[in-house]
Amino acid sequence: MPHDFKKFPELTKRQMDFYYFQSPHKQVFEDFPCEVIKVTDGDTVRVQWSERDFPFTVRLADIDAPEKGTSGHKESGSWLADQILGKKIEMQIDRDNRIDKWGRLLGTIIYRGVNINEVSTEIGHSKAFGS
Hints:
Helix content: 10-25%
Distance between the termini: 37 Å
Strand order of the largest sheet: 1-2-3-6-5
Largest sheet: 5 strands, mixed, barrel
């Protein structure tokens, strides 16, 4: 069965052996500079990177923001958008934990030297994942 690279651009570890050379775009294994073009919610963004000709989703690593329809959802997303929407950031990637169970790239946002994932938890817009 062919892989849907438009819907799932990132390959999991298991998919790498089979689909890596079929991938029409560069797979992400290292930190990269990009621009945040959309904030979906308090822990998910869409970015544009010079190495790809399409925007793609990144789930913020190690944090969990309120889900849609729950208390704090709008505030969390609004706060994140105020911090980074339209900004050039550095996306840090953990090679050993780069894809979530839904096939999204996991990353830590560094903006002006500040770890935005950590700040979000420190001020209460998200929780450390698993807490």
